[in-house]
Amino acid sequence: MAAGILDGKNLAYIIKEEIRAEVVAWQLRGHTPKLAVVLLGEDPASQAYVAAKQKVCREIGMACDVYFLADSGDKDSLQTDLLALIQRLNADGTVGGILVEMPLPVGINKALVLSSLDPDKDVDGMSPINRGRILSGEQGLVPATPMSCLELLVRSGVRLAGKHVVVVGRGETVGKPLVYMLLRHNPTVTICHSFTRDLGEVTRLGDVVITAVGKPGLLRGDMVKSGAVVVDAGTTPTPDGLRGDAVFDEVAEVASLISPVPGGVGALTTVLLLRNVLFGMQRRFGS
């Protein structure tokens, strides 16, 4: 059989329209949602990601201010300037969300930077408080990529309660937070990693398999049981373009639904990050 497609591009369009309506509602209440993006150094990839976020902000009517901090080579001075800027943005009532573009230059203390963010403005959902909220089941801002996985599943009508979900990858950005986010939907969750023996033996048990490793060709067709749902959150740049963890043609012959790369999980991350701006405003001002 040929799997149906979990279409991230189409879902991103739907969510953008939802956000656009919410932005108008906030404006009518006297608040213009605004994202503040902090960019350190001159990494071309980071600059491209910032430009993409600015474009989506324009499309949905959200304001977006970009703060550029040049990397002169003095890491202590750069970190001091960054922390001071974050404190100003934390205190600025016109700023709905703050995004410090990653990766940070070598020598900048990432943990210190994340812990300095107001958790209700931390649109990446990476601050210690937001991580704790995920673990405790409390509402908070969550990372966009694991939320993209869930949005694809839930909005496609995939019922998770009582199902066996296998997560491949235990990274800080996707795998770890995703496990606890999934548990809110009442599946049985197994997480695999580099020390898992016979990965295929475990993934074949999954009614749903979510892979987020960043290793092209990791998930083959014979590693997925018939009718399973596969979400591919692994993205690796190659000379032939972005590739996911799954061997798409093989897995699509076995699965009932599969997300492509590109056009699946990655298509949703920016819009869900911007939705976090609105979630944070709801926490601060009320819905």
Question: What keywords describe this structure?
Answer:
alpha/beta, 287 residues
- Please state the overall shape, judged from the principal axes of the Cα atoms: globular
What integer is the average pLDDT? Answer: 95
First-to-last CA distance: 45 Å
Beta content comes to 15-25%
Rg (C-alpha, Å): 19 Å
Count of helical regions: 10
Order of the strands making up the biggest sheet: 1-11-8-7-5-6
Unreliable spans are none
Class computed from helices, strands and strand pairing: alpha/beta
Work out the helicity level: 40-55%
Give an account of the 3D structure.
The protein has 287 residues and is an alpha/beta fold. 41% of the residues lie in helices and 16% in strands. The protein is built from ten helices and eleven strands. Strands 1-11-8-7-5-6 form a six-stranded parallel beta sheet. A three-stranded parallel beta sheet has the order 3-2-4, sandwiched between helices. Strand 2 (34-40), helix 2 and strand 3 (63-69) form a beta-alpha-beta unit. Helix 1 runs parallel beside helix 10, helix 6 packs across helix 7 and helix 6 (144-155) packs across helix 10 (269-285). The radius of gyration is 19 Å and the shape is globular. The N and C termini lie far apart (45 Å).
